[in-house]
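In response to a reviewer's request, we include the raw inputs and outputs for one of the modeled complexes. The two entities were modeled together in a single run.
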Amino acid sequence: MPNRRRAILILLLLVLLALASLWTALATGSIRFTAAEVLAALSGNDPPGADVILQLRLPRALAGFACGGLLALAGALMQVLLRNPLADPYILGISSGAGSGALFAMLLGLPALAIDGMAFAGALGTMLLVFGLAHGDGSWTQTRLLLTGVIVAAGGGALVTLMLAIAPEDRLRGMLFWLMGDLSQTVSPWPPLAILAATLILTMPFARQLNLLARGLLQAQALGVAVDRLRHAVYLLAALATAAAVTSAGAIGFVGLVVPHLLRLASGNDHRLLLPAAALAGGSLLLLADTLARTLIAPQQLPVGVLTALIGVPVFLFLLSRQPK
Amino acid sequence: MSVPLLATRKLLVEIGGTTLVRQLDLDLAAGERLAILGRNGSGKSTLLATLAGLRRASGGTVLLAGEDLARMPPRRAALQRAWLGQSQNDPFASTVLETVLTGRHPHLGRWDWESRRDAELARSALRAVGLSGLERRQVGTLSGGERQRLAIATVLTQAPALYLLDEPLSHLDLNHQFAVLELFAGATRDHAAGVVMVLHDPALAYRYCDRALLLFGDGRSESGPVDDILTAATLSGLYGHPLRQFDDDGRRVFVPQ
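The model returned the following structure tokens for the whole complex.
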């Protein structure tokens, strides 16, 4: 039986997990800090090394949390929209659109802000293209949406490969890092954080309707859900959330697939709990993965996308193998 | 006379370029039961979905308690009519109790969670279809007949004035077929609900419905009291197979020749 108290309890635990991962991210690195030093720096005192915490680690940690939360939330929404528990935020081509934009900007040697701008433009362009094409005759079935998205994603992937092939040697490394997902290039944590909050605030009022949508379109409509409007809104919000995450951190894989899926297995498919839980758990996972990425072989940094994939693939295969048929 | 629970005016139903129902004028009063019969592909389910407002009519209007269904907000419609579809697959795991509770959705406010009273309603609906004790089972582990009864419990939990049932007896064994038909007979008798159901057995339609609507699949339809319309002559024409009719003690059975 759905139970509000249980949901709040689980969310409180996840808030604690998020705070713990934030603290880990701020305290670990080439310079280690104690809990007291981190607190002192955050509360505005000026212990030695406060700059490292406030200027270097905090923005990166916040951006990591926001991107992880956005990806997990977008994944959960896409899974409902396509009624497929194996859908992820990139399935409809948003990431390859953003990748094409970002790589094109890098190919031209544009500055970081322009790379973000082009990535976002590429993501939005793909989103509108898929929406328009899938809408076509007005039917907008799940199959049609999925097929359109997969084909557009393949086209974007080809563009990405083309640009990698013709890129000069010295830019190749940056491009590859972008494609694998990398938080070290993030310009500012505030846009993804704001979009995460906005997506959550806009989707939570419809969480119970999403439960019905997951059971089928006609079923949901018969129970009083304005299905067409809801599906359009879910598509746009999930796509925007994905675009925001990919723009600031590149195409980080597996967070958007594994986190919602794991939560569905652990605490059920009630979206009133699942959506905020996905935001918190996705954020925490990416934050921890990024902390590992910059400390494992320090001073060299790994792209965080490699770590999420390395963690994600076995976890996902394990979940898949034990999924009851 | 009061406003009919469900009415159609010059209803036109088309699918894929074929006209299934033309110029249909129908009135269903509270407490009445109507059976829809016809061959496969004659448009029974399509008509039922149109009556539920899940499908746009190609012409004419469907009136729910006197109000144009096409303009009614979905939630208000859901408070007045329930629709039982032919069973679907669920890609996401869910327990029996969670599934039944979805019937309470239109009754809950945006931020409400299901209350103890909602759970009681859901449990009594499960009792009514003989699924007590399975509340915590995963839906995916149920048999076809159990899933059908679960879907019936869900529309009962929705507690509407009008039930639109698409093949409510599919997957059910004999005893459950009668139990379900008795259940909806009780709903019309005790709560003045209206019931429209797609049935395949004319004998059950005769026994459990007041009126019948026959769809011939080419746009023609015929409706009237079961006594007049469920006869060997009309049904032989409807199914394209000669039938013989036997009347016995207020029951009527049809035997194919």
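As requested, we also summarize the result in words. The interface with chain A takes residues 49, 52-54, 73-79, 82-83, 85, 88, 90-94, 97-99, 101-103, 105-106, 108, 110-111, 113-114, 119, 135, 138, 140-141, 158 of chain B (CB under 8 Å). The CA atoms of residues 77 and 131 of chain B lie 28 Å apart.
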